[in-house]
Amino acid sequence: MPVRRLSKFKLLAILAILTIAAALAPTVIAMASDEPAYSVELKDGDFEIRRYEPLLAAEVTVGGERSAAISQGFRLLADFIFGNNTSKTKIEMTAPVTQQPSEKIAMTVPVTQQASGNEWKVRFIMPAQYTAETLPVPNNTAVRIVAEPPKRFAVIRFSGWSSEANLAEHRDLLVAWVKSKALPAAGPPVAAFYNPPWSLPFLRRNEYLIELTG
HSE (CB half, 13 Å, CA atoms) of 127? Predict the structure, then answer.
């Protein structure tokens, strides 16, 4: 029947798209970004305790609803790494870093977002080869460069869209796990996003992190 053939064709087309995306997405993400160095002290299912090495981050503070705030923050930070800085540094979307007349920076992950009252702090983690002295200076004073010492975090990793429901569910799971282990929390949960917008939900890597004292 024509209707049955059409349905079967649609199903095959969807399966083909999903298969291709599943094969390509990890490669694209791995080529496009690095992530900050850390060691895992404890693993418990989807939960981990990690120790991160010192790092530099570019940070902005924006107000408003969460999804709108991260979009605005992303635009401000992208403007900085695409060249709105004192040395006109431009981003290179693939690793490794190469030296050319116009210096290029490899993009890193994750993009993080943290609530601060009615405002949000949005961050890009800077590539490890830069120091506070060698990192280009933003032209936009809204962009701050923050140097972080080594830190420990409790972390939950999960997939899916960064919807309010999905984020709230996993944020609450992490908070409950930290309390159940009597871990000393040093700050509020921080959301971290690792994937480009076109990534399929089941391939996405999202995390919540809670800084620990000690």
Answer: 21
